[in-house]
Amino acid sequence: MSYDLVVIGSGPAGYVCAIRGAQLGLKTAVVEKDKTFGGTCLNVGCIPSKALLHASHLFEEAEHDFAGMGIGVSKPKLDLKQMLSFKQEGVDGNVKGVDFLFKKNKIDAIKGTGKIIGAGKIDVDGKTIEAKNIVIATGSDVTRLKGIEIDEKRVVSSTGALSLDKVPGKLLVVGAGVIGLELGSVWRRLGAEVQVVEFLDRILPGMDGEVAKQFQRILEKQGMTFKLGSKVTAIDTKGKTLKASVEPAAGGKAETVEADVVLVAVGRVPFTEGLGLKEAGVELDERGRVKIDDHFQTNVKGIFAVGDVVRGAMLAHKGEDEGVAVAELIAGKAGHVNYDAIPNVIYTYPEVASVGKTEEELKQAGVAYKVGKFPFTANGRAKVNKTTEGFVKILSDDKTDKVLGVHIVGPDAGTMITEATITMEFSGSAEDIARTCHPHPTLSEAMKEAALGVDKRAIHM
To answer: Which domains are delineated in the chain?
Structure first.
């Protein structure tokens, strides 16, 4: 069978690419090795983790916050089996939605393991498919720690941490990045003691330093503990409890930390295994990512790659934008992704969101900038809702006032960051945000006040 476009992988980058290709009149197929569509994000990543974050937050609110609002309830009882069922219902709904969209757009969904056997040819479990254009969208896999075996029962990756059959008494999280903090916060809310070990001397590598410091304080107040500048070198699984050897990152004497479950969340790596890339002559970079040019094309004509398998942030929405762009380029249109305006969100409570440059990056680049900050303690809606932790910070160019970066710690930060992203997409200034009428009382007014603060004229502080 012959196609204009064949996408390998049906995660956010892959299925969006296929849909956009079909919309543009390309005869399109998707090859997927797993039983369900949607990739890591829909099945064992973004979607199920958000379901558990939502449910666990409501559980904690019911226990600690309802009484203060005049809502009398008895102490909530955890039904973990039902909570996991709630999570799975959300996953199933999203996965079926992708299946529906494939049918609606007349995309052939081919189940099986795809292997590129040359330019324009893919083998799927012994059957050859021809394609004028191939897009690799195979996503990423969890990073393993040398000498530590993940069994997804007691030593788990993010996948296993989404399906624990009981709340661990003690959870040790290895890695203070987005995944470790999100899943750690889920199980802390449900009753686990959570300790986070991080190799660096700070949490959230790559995030704005001031944001990371304040956010760590908030998480510590919630009950999480942190051991920074440390590494887990081994885990003894023989006993009833796990015994992790934790050493200073700079070297020194190891200590033993006991835990019921260890979550290894030290990042993700591109998934290229079994794709036949070496045989097909497709080049990889030093980090195992598929090398692409500015139009997502590999060194082999007609073979493209997008999403977690290529350079850049491993974010579903970044992959979706790349999927749309490459489909449009293949169809002869002007597909493009603005990598300076890709937002990033951590869905803990409160949330953390950012877009653009951090203060550290601007200082390193020698860019003169102005700062406007506004705390949620001075926001009317946050005050009345008693959700006052955190702040909005806007960084703008010292001469032009163009917004260079926005960083938020606070309630609903993930929604609020979109305003900043749109501003940056259209090269807007802090003054543009400041002079835009924001509805009252809303959390978004903190964005306006931070923009006013760039020029030292915030109203409510």
So the answer is: 2-142+269-337 (3.50.50.60), 155-266 (3.50.50.60), 341-454 (3.30.390.30)
